[in-house]
Specification:
It contains nine helices and ten strands. By secondary structure, it is an alpha/beta fold. The longest helix has 28 residues. The two termini are 32 Å apart.
Length: 232
């Protein structure tokens, strides 16, 4: 059974993530999300996307089966693929709304940074970049998107000190924009996406993305390409 399913609700493409576990970003999971996002971009009938996690878990980060194995090429390529995913979300030509259903850690938190609006379930979940605590250094592309989206007041603690917060506190940090009761989460995210689809001109939105975000997108592209070249 696929970890990625999609459904259309009028002009909204809802992308459901559910691997039955922690929604780890495996090669297959990343490919599935990218395929869905590109489908939305190539369909004139889609005005916005909602990325929705499974109950209690948005994503716990990269697949540890790859990250903890002794295959440096696979590790580098998985992280680079994750960078491509976050970069694609951030550069998407239609608005993307995240429905964060619970834990969003490491690459899961970076996915949130790639989305236009991030709605979180008001649960005792963990949100943040825990890489330093688990003996990892954030890749350059991740530092770039974090610098673009996180509150400057919280960057040091969030990036260097691996501070993890609740969803409610993550609003001030910059990982989320608002929190709602868990049973209202998906409806709220779809409502915001529907408002975008109804009110934002598609060409103006895509043009503004290029004008406003292109420098960050180009920098991420450079970092991702350099990472892939290091194991080519």
């Amino acid at each position: 059974m696929s970890a990625i399913t999609t459904e259309r609700r009028d002009q909204i493409l809802v992308v459901h993530l559910d691997d039955g576990k922690a929604n780890a970003l495996s090669f297959d999971m990343i490919d599935g999300i990218l395929t869905a996002i590109r489908e939305a971009e190539n369909d004139d009938q889609i005005g916005a996307v909602v990325v929705h996690g499974r109950e209690g878990k948005f994503s716990a980060g990269f697949d540890l089966g790859v990250m903890m194995a002794d295959n440096q090429s696979a590790i580098v390529n998985l992280v680079a693929n994750g960078g491509e995913l976050v970069r694609t979300l951030y550069g998407c030509s239609v608005p993307v709304v995240a429905a964060s259903t619970g834990h969003a850690l490491a690459a899961g938190a970076l996915m949130l940074l790639g989305c236009d609006v991030r709605i979180g379930a008001d649960l005792p979940a963990k949100v943040g970049l825990n890489e330093v605590a688990i003996k990892m250094v954030l890749p350059d592309w991740a530092l770039t998107i974090a610098g673009a989206r996180l509150s400057k007041r919280h960057m040091q603690r969030s990036i260097v000190n691996a501070r993890i917060t609740t969803p409610a506190d993550a609003v001030d940090v910059g990982f989320l924009d608002e929190v709602v009761p868990a049973d209202e989460l998906l409806d709220r995210a779809i409502a915001i996406a529907a408002e975008f689809a109804a009110t934002l001109d598609p060409r103006a939105y895509a043009g503004t993305i290029r004008a406003f975000r292109q420098e960050t997108l180009d920098e991420m592209d450079t970092h991702i390409a350099a990472a892939r070249a290091s194991v080519a």
